[in-house]
Design brief:
Ferritin; 5 helices; 73% helix; binds fe (ii) ion
Length: 157
Amino acid sequence: MIEFKRSILSTADSNQVAEHLQKRLVDLINLALILKQAHWQVVGTNFRAVHMQLDEIIADVRAGSDEVAERMSTLGVAPDGRASVVSETSTLTSFDYGFAKTPETVTAVADILLETITGLRESIGLLADIDPISEDLLISIAAPLEQHLWMIQSQEA
Ligand SMILES: [Fe+2]
């Protein structure tokens, strides 16, 4: 295994931060896949709006997963975004397969967005003292996701 010569954090801190970032990474990769599934299988009223809105969220989620993975590499720990690892370790609720009406899709997507945000906030709280740069990165990913949650769940009213 290759290790970088220069570490920003101590090995113990790097490993602890990386453990959190890895959890957030698999959730974000999983979330992007779930949202794409929702994008393909949504049907019914306001189809086009929801279909397009999901792609906007996916763009932010994919960018976020890339940033988290690259932060891990920066800290000297290889990120693991392999499909098998994502499927075994992401804790997000699994998404139902099959065409689904917009109200059910909106509700399911809102629930999964909140699960992802809750995980991000948990890591944000725990990383604050060890690595404020990683903390800041997760905050910058959570903020637009929280705005997306607002825009998704506003359609439930
Ligand atoms: Fe598409």
